[in-house]
Amino acid sequence: MSQSRFQNIQLASFDVWKTLIKSNPEFKPRREALFMEAFGIAPDQAQEFSIVARNIDVACDEETDRTGIQFGPADRLRKIAEAMGCSVSEEAIEDAAQAAQTLFVELLPLWNEPELLNSLLRIKEKGIRLAIVSNTGFLDGVNMRLAFETMGLMPHISTAIFSNEVGVAKPDPAIFRALVDQSGVHPANILHIGDNPLADYGGATRAGLQAVLLTEGAVDGMETTPSIQALAEEIA
Asked: DSSP character for 133?
C-alpha cells in the first residue's frame, strides 16, 4: 500500500463494533435470557425470541444506515415486545435495558484483532490523536466508556462521540461535525476508520473527512485496509 494516500492526518477516529471490538461470546445469550425474563417469555419460546430480537436489531441498524435516525435500547425493546405480543410496562423496558448494559460491562467485549491496542498506540506515538465515533443501539455511551476504561483504551482517546449523546447516528454528517467541533481538528485532517460502507465511509466522506473501509479485498471507489494493524503500519 502506498505511504501517501492519507495526507496530513492529525486525528484518527474509529468505529467501535467490528472495527475495535466484538461481543464476548457469553454476552448475547445472557442478554436474551435477561430480556425473556423481563418480558415473561417461556423458555420454550427461546428460539422464536432470538430470531425476532435479531431481526429487529438488524432492521433498526439498516434504517439507521439509510436515515441516520438513532434507535436506543428502549426503542428496540418496545419493537421486540410488540412483535412477540407481550404487554410490557415502560418501567420494565427501562429496567431491562439498564440491566443489559450492566451485563455488558461485566462481560467485557473482545478486541477485534489480537494486537489491536498496540496498533492504536503505534498510531498515537506518531502524534496522531485517537477518537471514537460510534452508533449505539442496546448500549449507550456511558457504558461503552466504562468498558473501554477497564480495557485500557479510554486514556488514549482524545474525543469520544456516541450517537445516543448527539441525537443522530452515522451516516448523518452531524455526528461527524460533532467530532470536528469537539476535537478542534479540520475535517480534511481527520481519517475515519470503520467497517460499514454506508455509515462509516459514506458518512465520513460526505462530512469532508478522509476515510478508509476496514474490509478484506478491494471495494470500488473506496480506500480499504484489511486490518487496523495494517493501517498502523501504513500511516504510522
From this structure: E
Give the pTM.
Answer: 0.92
Match 482517546 to its residue by C-alpha cell.
157
Between CA 167 and CA 160 the distance in angstroms is: 14
User: What pairs with residue 224 in β-bridges?
Assistant: 213
H helical segments located in 68-160? 73-84, 90-106, 116-125, 141-150
Nearest one of 220, 152, 228 to 194, comparing CA atoms: 228
Which three cell numbers, joined as nine digits, stand for 197?
460502507
**Burial profile 109-143: b = 16 or more Cβ within 10 angstroms, e = fewer:** bebbbeebbebbbbbbeeebbbbbbbbbbbbbbeb
pLDDT tens per residue across span 129-156 = 999 999 999 999 999 999 999 999 999 9
pLDDT tens figures, 15-49: 999 999 999 999 999 999 999 999 999 999 999 99
